[in-house]
Amino acid sequence: HTRYISVTGVQTCALPISERRPVLLLSFDIMFDEQAVAEAIDFALEASTELLVCLANTLPMANANAAARRHMGNPVVREQMAEIVRSARAAGADARSLVYNSPRPMNALFGVVRNHGIGLVVFGPNRKSYGRWRYRWHLRRIRRGADCLVWPLEA
């Protein structure tokens, strides 16, 4: 059997059922975009795979270990993550949250993608809060460095 994940009507991958890879919904300590959340949940349900709701926190370079013990992300964003996980589970998806802290969160993301065998990264920060140019720049970096599919298809 083969599963197809379609993104806005375009077939983007075909994975044998035995090779299902999780969907990762990602934000960098910014509120999640509602459309990205809906798409991530739909992709996970359609592929019958796990949804990881991920919050990446940037730490200062100086004494990053001490900062990591004090910083678990914006509490408002953490609450939104919990609500996304509850919504995904209510819809029938296997969902959990993941928070990581790093002075270089983009490089750490690539490790998370490899370690968890991610099949699709849904880059989901709120674009207005994140900034247009920063969003495009980070989306391009994720596409170049992640060994998986990346949504959205356009910047």
Describe the structure.
- With 155 residues, this protein is α/β, with parallel strands linked by helices.
- The protein has six helices and seven strands.
- It has helices at 34-47, 64-70, 75-91, 105-116, 127-130, 132-145, and strands at 2-7, 10-16, 23-27, 51-58, 95-102, 120-123, 149-151.
- The chain has a five-stranded parallel sheet, sandwiched between helices. A two-stranded antiparallel ribbon has the order 1-2.
- β3 (23-27), α1 and β4 (51-58) form a beta-alpha-beta unit.
- α4 (105-116) crosses α6.
- It starts with a strand and ends with a strand.
- Residues 1-18 have low confidence and may be disordered.
Please summarize what this structure is.
The protein has 155 residues and is of the alpha/beta class. It has helices at 34-47, 64-70, 75-91, 105-116, 127-130, 132-145, and strands spanning 2-7, 10-16, 23-27, 51-58, 95-102, 120-123, 149-151. Helices cover 44% and strands 26% of the residues.
Sequence-ordered SSE layout with sheet pairings:
Layout: E1 2-7, E2 10-16, E3 23-27, H1 34-47, E4 51-58, H2 64-70, H3 75-91, E5 95-102, H4 105-116, E6 120-123, H5 127-130, H6 132-145, E7 149-151
Parallel strand pairs: 3-4, 3-6, 4-5, 6-7
Antiparallel strand pairs: 1-2
Helix pairs in contact: 4-6
